[in-house]
Each structure stands twice: as structure tokens, then as C-alpha cells.
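Review this fold:
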Amino acid sequence: MRKNKIFLGILILLIIIFTTLIFLPEKSTTNIGAMLIGLPAQEETIKIGAMLILSGGGAAWGQASQRAIDLAVEEVNNVGGINGKKIEIIYEDTQGSASKAVSIYNKFKDIDNVIAIIGPNLQTEVSAIAPLAEKDGFPIITPSYAPIENRPNPKNPLMIMLDPIIEAEQMAEYVYDQGIKTISVLGTQDSWDEEVSTAFAN
């Protein structure tokens, strides 16, 4: 289990680093490219921001994400980092707040000068920062989900969570195959619940 978590964490970090070269403007890409191949650059470490829900309701999810990231970073840094540069993670607690996620996004981009962001954990937070990421061309990878109408660029933030529409359709097919023809679907007015309920019913 620990090896699987480390592998997943390393995979996430590598995806972030290399998708950075795709999403960022040409000027920024040149600097990051030089840094990753070992050419002179101002930064001594590869900085990645992680905005997670570390307190309040849902904190267990964010704390689990933090542990997985820490394991992956330790594994990569213990073998010399990437081209001699260690990975540095800057953590910030969103507290489950969309407005706080926006503030953290701006801090990461303008003050901390990270090359990419991991997170956030909640779809309301993802929906809040997705338009900013599209406008700025700033790469984000998230373990969460946000409705497509809230994501101007469906590829950024890059989501590693299974599409809930596919999940709902698979659940509906399974239920139907069991011979169940009538079922009640209970949910809230949350956009995620509505999408899943509609997909299941259809």
C-alpha cells in the first residue's frame, strides 16, 4: 500500500512538472525548462504549491493528500531530486473556503513563485480558481472534481478523480443488470449531486 501511494505521488509530481512546460507562457516556460535540465536559474529548488483542506470539515481528505505528497517528495529528493534540484512543497490550508482558495492561488503565483499547484480538494474551490488558472495559463492538478461549465479549460485544472458521470452510468448499468428497474435517488442541490443523479437516471 505504501509503495502504491509513493508511486501515485511521484506520478502526480512528474505530471505537474512536465505539464508546466505545456501550459505556461513562452517566457516562463523557457525559465522552467532551463531549471529542469540543470541550466542556471534563480531558484535552488523546484517549488510546488499545495492548497489542501487541512482543518475543519473534510480535513481528513486534505491531510491524507498531504501525507501522500510528503511520501512522494521524500522519495524523489532522497535520490537527488530532479536534475539535482530538490522539490519543495509549500502548503496552505484552504479551510474548505472557495474565497480562501483564490487568495492562496494568488499568493502561490505572485509571491511564492511556484511552478504549479496541487489541489484543492473541494469542487467549490476548484470552480473558484479554474477561471484564474485559464486566464493565467497556470498549471494545476487536483484530486477533486468540478462541473465542466465551471472549467473554461477542461484540461486545466487537470483532474485525477474519475469522472462522476462515468461512475454514475456504470452504477446504473450494474443496478439494471441485477434486474432492478425502479430506484429512488436521494441527493442535495449541490452541482455534483445533480450531475450524478441526472446521469444515473438517464
